[in-house]
Amino acid sequence: MAHLDHVVGERRRFTVLYVDLDDFKLVNDTLGHSAGDDLLRHVAAAMRTLVGPEDLLARQGGDEFVLIAMDPPDADRLAERLLSAITQPVSLRGLTVRVGASIGVACCPNDGSDASALIENADAAMYDAKGSGRNQIRRGRPLHTRDRDRDRAALELTATLPQAVAHDELVLPWQPLVDVADLSIVGLEALVRWNHPERGLLYPGAFIPFAERTGMITAIDAWVASAVTRQRHAWHTQGLDPYVGFNLAPQYARHPDALESLLVRLSHGGLGLDHITVELTESEALREDRRLLEFAHGLHKAGITVSLDDFGRAYSSLNRLREVPARWIKLDRAFLEGVPENDVATEVLTAIIDLLRALRYDFIIEGVEREPQRQLLSRLGVRVAQGFLLGRPVPADDLHDRLRQSPVCHRTPSPETTDDQTDRPDHAHQAVPALAS
Ligand code: C2E
Ligand code: MG
Ligand code: MG
Fold it and tell me: What φ, ψ does residue 3 adopt, rounded to 5°?
């Protein structure tokens, strides 16, 4: 950094552009590391065409680059040209690949006065760009105003959430749960996004925490349950009936009529409930909060499978686990970090899998991003996993062909049940035979 400050010297006008490639990991994982290296060389060469004699271009590590441009006439224009240069198609191992990039821009003196402050600022702006849907450019802000701006943006976002639900600005892509051995789809998870009219596609991390704090999460989760039902009807007309899961926040579940109104939404139009999984995040609250526990028992009794999400992310008290009527455990993706290259990480994962098997849980491994991970899981006899390697969250229509090719997802010809689902016998343990790990 001292070197940078030296290079920048006494100049009062320079701009830092922080560039991070989107989906570089995907190229590395699917085409191999040498293809990844070729891509980096290609990107560096494309960026160099825009670098002036006094500018400085450096690779910050991995797939991150920093460009310090001296006195650029128009910093925004430079960022746009940079993005366009990077996103040109490139031929790698016989495939034409187009990677996106997220770029953060910070200008001296407005956004900071020295190189390190500006790099930090541009880095934060780059993260903003990633968070709001990738392949974008974001301007940095002076550090002291950034928190205030963020708070204000959060407030604005929260205020417009009710409108978002009412105006159908929410969208519901689906991520497949996949058979590790033959890659067929054995189920799907609905993951909500907000198609914000001004800010573009927002991921749950950008609005679910605020929605939880303000109580709006109840409206979001109710919308999700209805959207799940609508999509199930659409699949039914296509002869498909995949196992579907969706997430519910504890705040939703604590609501006094939560169970009743949820069952009404899910069985709207006469749909049966035995292909449904509700994912509740594994937490101390789930075991300690009577209302939440009762809600989980109510789901189980209605024939809905309860899944414990993100297992192992917080601390998981195994001796109390039995109190939650969960059939499935979704192992948090943190357990795959470093696997299979790191022996200790691999041993921990193997031990957890053995333990879940001994406790007779069915389980799903979350976050499979690389082929060696899939191969290891296959060797360990794991049946079902989820992750970017096996399928990203995509609109339902994009899954049509894969669902058709996955026998488990075909609709059985048996007549639809319209019974009062809450009176059904306790049979959740047979509800998802196809998914047993
Ligand atoms: P989750 O239920 O654990 O969902 C899995 C998250 O991991 C999703 O993020 C998914 O896109 C991401 N993911 C899947 N495979 C991979 C992978 O291979 N690598 C990596 N790095 N990530 C992967 P997303 O969609 O951003 O959702 C985040 C969380 O937001 C969800 O975690 C869930 O807790 C919450 N959420 C999503 N939809 C809803 C909803 O409708 N209602 C409620 N209450 N919460 C929701
Ligand atoms: Mg989930
Ligand atoms: Mg999860």
Answer: -60, -45
Query: pLDDT digit string (tens) for 13-36?
Result: 789 999 999 888 888 888 899 999
Per-residue DSSP letter, 351: H
Half-sphere exposure of 62 (CA within 13 A, CB side): 10
The pLDDT of 344-372, averaged and rounded, is 94
Report the atom number in ligand 1 closest to the C-alpha of 279.
Answer: 2
Q: How far is CA 217 from CA 154, 165, 228, in A?
A: 15, 10, 16
List residues near ligand 1 (CB under 6 A).
Answer: 175, 191-192, 203-205, 208, 217, 221, 224, 246-249, 279, 309-310, 333, 367-369, 386-388, 393
Instruction: List the residue whose alpha carbon is closest to atom 7 of ligand 1.
Output: 367
Q: How far is the CA of 26 from the centre of ligand 3 (A)?
A: 20
- pLDDT tens digits for range 394-411: 999 999 999 999 999 998
Q: Name the segment(s) of the chain with CATH classification 3.20.20.450.
A: 161-428
* The CA-based dihedral angle spanning residues 11, 15, 16, 18, taken in that order and rounded to the nearest 10 degrees: -170
Nearest to 216 by CA among 171, 170, 264, 176: 170
Mean pLDDT of 370-383: 97
Does the domain at 2-143 match CATH 3.40.190.10? Answer given as: no
In the chain, list all ranges with CATH 3.30.70.270.
Answer: 2-143
CATH topology of domain 161-428: TIM Barrel (3.20.20)
pLDDT at 213: 76
428 has a pLDDT exceeding 60: no
Task: Give the global pTM.
Answer: 0.68
